[in-house]
Specification:
Distance between the termini of chain B: 5 Å
Family (chain A): Belongs to the cytochrome P450 family.
Organism (chain A): Streptomyces humicola
Shape of chain B: globular
Keywords (chain A): Heme, Iron, Metal-binding, Monooxygenase, Oxidoreductase
CATH class of chain A: Mainly Alpha
Structural class of chain A: alpha+beta
Protein name (chain A): Cytochrome P450
Oligomer: heterodimer
CATH architecture of chain B: 2-Layer Sandwich
Strand content of chain A: 5-15%
Number of helices of chain B: 2
Number of strands of chain B: 4
CATH architecture of chain A: Orthogonal Bundle
Largest sheet of chain A: 5 strands, mixed
Cofactor (chain B): [3Fe-4S] cluster
Order of helices and strands of chain B: EHEEHE
Chain lengths: 415, 64
């Protein structure tokens, strides 16, 4: 279902070449300024894809929500991130069982429901003491090492990796393997061969784990899912689905939140008034995290869908088979979100209906866990090191402009 | 105010439980549960928020 349609403006000799997805940030904490102009002038606009072809870019909050809730926009996009990748991999027309990111209803719900129970508000609440303990241990280690240390390698990645490892039943000793594979899967410039190889390696890793859990079950989610699958041979879960689901939870479970921890820390350090407000009232932690999620929206290139019929979105006609990109960062800076001055970071504002976790039936499954990890880590970090500061200037910081998930490759800090 | 919740649409995000915990809960499977279909007026704003934030548009509010 790749986009092979040709629009009149794609023809040679047409007025102007199509622009690509806006990617040029002028401030590392803000989306590219071009999005604000598009929201005003062309909220559903035609864009060229770097590897050829074209599609639509949706930048207004209202249209992004409408699109992501509309079943006529399918998740079965045939290419991996074709709106940013110069060389996107082609995906099988029929998604693998358990591939939550590519399945539509009702199949999607059949695979999402068995894992939902591990991420409820109550279950995550029960995990909080353990998350706190993991964070304190990492802060102890930072303190012993003395600054400068890389906050990504010493705090953000260890906390999120340890939490998801314990939850899934993955050995933390394997972190080098899965963190490395995540990096290769999420790199914008990955070739189809590289990303295919990394996905296969992750699949083999997870298939071995599923087999091991079947032999020796533990008190963890993979073991629970294996038991559920074995008890219900006619149910949706087979070994392929278990492997695909496990791989997705492992990658999504550590990479996204780790990047929010590092980027959220740096953002607060560069907004001292906001950091002071949070320090002065730790009860603001939940609001501050919600605001950082909105303000930074690290799913920086948004979400892709494919139209399954001719339709209209935001007044623009879209044809069946065309690929459409919902810009989450743009939607979260749109005054249409219904908050004052959305370009201002304000950790005291009440919760908004932001779309940092997406919207519609695919909205992030692990969002309660992400909130708990972020609240615990940021609060404890700033309490432990009152003099925390970056050990590099903003110009030297390694922002992840080259990855599907924004954040920082490294963040040297001292105190 | 009368609230209806479509459990078939629920995708278990838990936003309603965070936003209006006196009115919504989740069962062990993560599906939202309505604790009070006719909550007192002072909870109206929280319920409206929960309905607006629900990613599955599974919550409806009707004035009585």
């Amino acid at each position: 279902m790749a986009d092979t349609s040709v629009h009149p403006t794609d023809q040679p000799g047409a007025q102007q070449p199509l622009p690509g997805l806006p990617r040029h940030r002028t401030c590392p904490f803000d989306p590219a300024p071009e999005y604000a102009r598009l929201r005003e002038d062309a909220p559903v606009s035609r864009i060229a894809f770097p590897g050829g072809g074209s599609g639509w870019l949706v930048t207004r909050y209202e249209d992004v929500r409408a699109m992501l809730a509309d079943p006529r926009f399918s998740s079965r996009v045939g290419l991996t991130a074709p709106h940013v990748r110069p060389n996107p991999a082609t995906l099988p027309e029929v998604p693998l069982p358990g591939a939550l990111l590519r399945l539509d209803e009702p199949e999607h719900a059949r695979y999402r429901r068995p894992v939902m129970r591990a991420f409820t508000v109550k279950r995550v609440q029960q995990l909080r003491p353990r998350i706190q303990q993991i964070v304190e241990e990492r802060l102890d280690a930072m303190e012993r090492a003395g600054g400068p240390v890389d906050l990504v390698a010493e705090l953000a990645l260890p906390v999120t990796s340890l939490v998801i490892c314990e939850l899934l039943g993955v050995s933390y000793d394997d972190r080098g393997t899965f963190q490395g594979l995540a990096g290769r899967i999420l790199a914008v410039d990955a070739s189809p061969e590289q990303s295919q190889q990394a996905r296969q390696a992750l699949g083999s890793f997870m298939a071995e784990l599923v087999a091991a859990k079947r032999r020796t079950p533990g008190d963890d989610l993979i073991s629970t899912l294996v038991a559920q699958a074995d008890a219900d041979p006619d149910g949706p879960l087979d070994d392929v689905a278990l492997t695909v689901l496990g791989s997705l939870l492992l990658i999504a479970g550590h990479e996204t939140t780790a990047n929010m921890i590092a980027l959220g820390t740096l953002t607060l350090l560069h907004h001292p008034d906001q950091l002071a407000a949070l320090r002065g009232d730790p009860a603001l932690a939940d609001r501050a995290v919600e605001e950082l999620l909105r303000y930074l929206t690290i799913i920086q290139f948004g979400l892709t869908r494919v139209a399954t019929e001719d339709l209209t979105l935001g007044g623009q006609g879209i044809r069946a088979g065309e690929i459409v990109v919902a810009s989450l960062p743009s939607a979260n800076r749109d005054p249409g979100l219904g908050i004052d001055d959305p370009d201002r970071l304000d950790v005291t504002r009440g919760p908004s209906a932001h779309v940092a976790f997406g919207y519609g039936p695919h909205q992030c499954l692990g969002q309660q866990l992400a909130r708990a990890e972020l609240q615990t880590t940021l609060t404890s970090l700033f309490a432990r090191f009152p003099g925390l500061r970056p050990a590099v200037s903003l110009d030297e910081a390694a922002f992840r402009d080259d990855m599907l998930i924004y954040g920082l490759h490294r963040l040297p800090v001292t105190w | 105010m009368r609230i209806t919740l479509d459990q078939d649409r629920c995708c278990g995000a838990g936003t309603c439980v965070l936003t209006a915990p006196d009115v919504f809960d989740q069962d062990d499977d993560g599906i939202a549960v309505l604790l009070d279909a006719q909550p007192p007026a002072h909870l109206a704003a929280a319920v409206r928020d929960a309905a607006a934030r629900c990613p599955a548009a599974a919550i409806r509010m009707e004035a009585e």
